[in-house]
Amino acid sequence: MLEVRDLQVAHGQAPALWGVSFELRKRELLCVVGPNGAGKTTLINTLAGVLRATSGSGGRIVFEGRDITALAPHRFCEAGIAIVPEGRRLFGSMSVLENLEIGSIVPAAKARRAESLEAVLKLFPALEPKLAQAAGELSGGQQQMVAIGRALMARPRLLLLDEPSLGLSPLIVNEMFGAIRRVNEEGTAVLLVEQNVSMALRLAHRAYVLEQGRMVAEGTPDALMQRDEIRRAYLGV
Questions:
Q1: 3 state SS of 194
Q2: How far is CA 131 from the centre of its chain?
């Protein structure tokens, strides 16, 4: 479904990703873990079109057989990719409903907005009585529900999640990861970047380890956890 080959990304003159290659299969839940500063957010923002691969030999991003490396940033959503960014980035003064509706601005998604909203409220029933409330007034957990719901309103085939557990209580984290699992079970492929390594590995079908801008390991969660050097150096357990 998603093939990334020799991806290179820089922040100004400073390289952030070096020759990153991996694949994500249809309906798969894949996680990328690694220490702070490894390049995880850079990776997910590049896959969402927020950042660009280095011009020239910056590698390729192929989604559903289509090379989208040079696609205009606003076309990534039309292609079927939606992102839940780190820190949620909601419009705090706008209502929950308005924030959700922004996610379905693409014509194909807008035509099915009512259906998508019903699905989001089924996934996060706590949001229904909050629809008219300003998003900035919600708790951190509820704001994360809105951020995920906004992305799902675009009806993506690939959902990108950047640190969805950040700043949330353990109880809310469990609820959030349960919702992510349900989204995946219903057919949406998920790429999860997450600092909560133990939770991410319990959720994922496969995992990659990113360190200093390079992929250094790949495998099933069980296989990675059996490697002592991976557990100590990259997984924090």
A1: coil
A2: 24
pLDDT digits (tens, 9 = 90+) for 198-227: 888 889 999 999 999 999 999 999 998 888
Angle in degrees, CA 89, 105, 194, rounded to 5:
35
Local structure of residue 107 (DSSP, 8 states): H
pLDDT at 188: 97
Q: Which tokens belong to 56?
A: 């020239």
Q: Are 49 and 75 in contact (CB under 8 A)?
A: yes
> Helix (H, G, I), strand (E, B), or coil: what is residue 56?
coil
Q: Following CA atoms 81, 179, 98, 87 in sequence, which dihedral angle do they give, to the nearest 10 degrees?
A: -70
- 5 CB-contact burial (10 Å; exposed 0-12 / middle 13-18 / buried 19+): middle
Residue 209 to residue 218: CA distance in whole angstroms? 6
Share the mean pLDDT of the chain: 92
Name the β-bridge partners of 62: 3, 67
